[in-house]
Amino acid sequence: MFFLLSFNTFSQSIELIESFIGYQEDSEIISFTPNNRIILSGDYQGNINLWDLKYQTLIKTIKAHQLPINSIKFSENGKRFTTCSNDSSVKVWDFNSGKLIDSVKIKDIPKIALFNKKENGYLIFTENGEIIEKKFRYKKLYHKLSQKNTFLDAILSYDKKNIITCDEKSLKMRNYISGEIEWEVFHPSKNIFSKVQIHSQDTLVLWSENGDINFWREKDDSHLLEINATNLHNRLSINKHCDIIISGYYKDRPFLINLNEIDFSENYKTDFVIANTFLSSLNKTYLVSSGEERRHRLMEIKKHRFFPISVQKRKVADKKEFITNSRYIILEIWDNAQVDGDTVSLNFNGEWILKNYGLVRAKKQIFLKLEEGESNELIFYAKNLGKISPNTTAINLIDKKKIKEFEINSNLDENGKITLINTSKGNLSQNNMINKSNY
Question: For a disulfide at 275, which of 63, 248, 414, 428, Cβ 3.0-4.6 Å?
C-alpha cells in the first residue's frame, strides 16, 4: 500500500510516496550506501536487508545479529561497513559481496564501531565508556581508554589525528594515539549532544537529544550557530553518501534546506525553528524521515526543488509571470535607470545562475532551459540597494516569438520573482500552479 505525501515551502514542491522500507514493519536503521541504487536497512530482529531502490525489491537478507542493531558505519572508501548490536557483537562486512570479514564478541554492549585510522581494524565504543581496538586477522583486543559515561556517538576528525565523541557528559576531542582530551565542551543544561558529524574540514555539526542543531569550529573550539528544533532527530544514520535536509519555519514562513548549504555569513540565530530532519540520497531521489523510537521511513521523492535559505528568509513582494511554449529562453538583465551601484543575484529553480552582479547599462545575456509543463521560478535577490532604494532590475525575456520587458524591485527584506510557465506539453492545470498544502 502506498500513499502520497506532499509539502511546499517557498514554492518548493516535494511529493513523496511512502515506500517499501519501514511501512509494513518498523525499521530501526536505514543507511544510504556508496551505490546510489542500493540501500541498507537494519530491522529489530538483527537482520541486514539490502534493497534495490529502482525496483523497490529486497535483494538479500543477512542474519547479522540476534538482537537489534545499534549502528551501521562505512569505511572511508565505502568497501566495508560495520554493524553493532545489543547482542554484544561487532561485525565487519564486505559491501559488494555481503560476506563477513571479521567479528568479535565483547563483554559490554557496543554502541558504535568505526574503522581505525589505517582502516586495518576498527574502534569499538561501548555502553560502559570503553574504547577498544580490534585489528583484522588478530584475536587480541586493545583497550585504548575507559571513562565513566556511555558513548552516544563517535567519529574521527577530518585529518584523523583525533577521536571526537559525544557521551552523557560532554563533547570531547581526544588525541588518537594518547587518548588525552585536547578540548571538551559540556552539554547545555537543557540538553545533551547525542550525535556528531563532520560538516566541513574544520567544522562539526552536533545534534542534541531534542533535535537542536549546533555548529562548532573544531580548531579554535568556538560555537558558530544553533538552530532550535521542535522534534527529535532520532539518530538518523548519517554518512557521506547522503545529504541532510531540514524543514521548519522562519518567522511565519516554512523553509526547506540542504544542511550542507548553510552559509555562516547569514544570520540563522533568530526566528529559525526546525520541525523535521531528513536524510536524502545525493541525487535527491529518496528521503528518509526521522520517526519516534528510531522508526524511520524511506520515501521516494517524485518532485523536488530546494531554494537557498538566504532566499527563503525574504518575502516575495514583486511577482510577475511569463507564459511561453518555448523550452529555451534568453534572459537579458541591465539597469535601465540611473546606474547607482545596484548588485543583484539571480536564482533559477533553486540554483544560482548569477551571483553578486553589479548592474550596468549594457545588457547581459543568460540562457535558461525551462522544465516542460512546469512552473519555473526566477528569483531576484538584492545584495545591496545601491545609492537609491530599492534595487531595480530591468529584464527582457525572449523566446522564439516574442520579447517581454519587466522591471523587478527587490530590497534586503523582499525578493522579486518571475514565474516562467512552459506550456510546451499542453496547458498546466490550475492545481499544478497552486502551492500544495504544507507537510
Answer: 248
Q: What is the pTM of this model?
A: 0.81
Instruction: Tell whether 95 and 216 lie within a shared domain.
Output: yes
Q: What is the pLDDT of residue 66?
A: 94
pLDDT for 162 equals 94
One domain, residues 257 and 398: no
Mean pLDDT value across the chain: 84
Is residue 221 left, alpha or beta, with left meaning phi > 0 and alpha meaning psi from -120 to 50? Answer: left
State which residues form the domain around 83. Answer: 4-309
* Residues in Cβ contact with 30 at an 8 Å cutoff, skipping those fewer than 6 apart: 21, 22, 39, 40, 41, 237, 279, 288, 296, 298
Q: Averaged over 165-190, what is the pLDDT? A: 89
Question: Within 13 Å of residue 367, how many CA atoms lie on the same side as its CB?
Answer: 4
Cα-Cα-Cα-Cα dihedral sign, residues 152, 153, 157, 161 = positive
Q: Pick the last residue of a domain from 309, 336, 358.
A: 309
* CA-to-CA dists, residue 308 to 86, 245, 248, angstroms: 41, 12, 14
Q: Domain of 270: which CATH number?
A: 2.130.10.10
- Give the sheet arrangement for strand 57-63, strand by strand: 29-32, 38-42, 47-52, 57-63
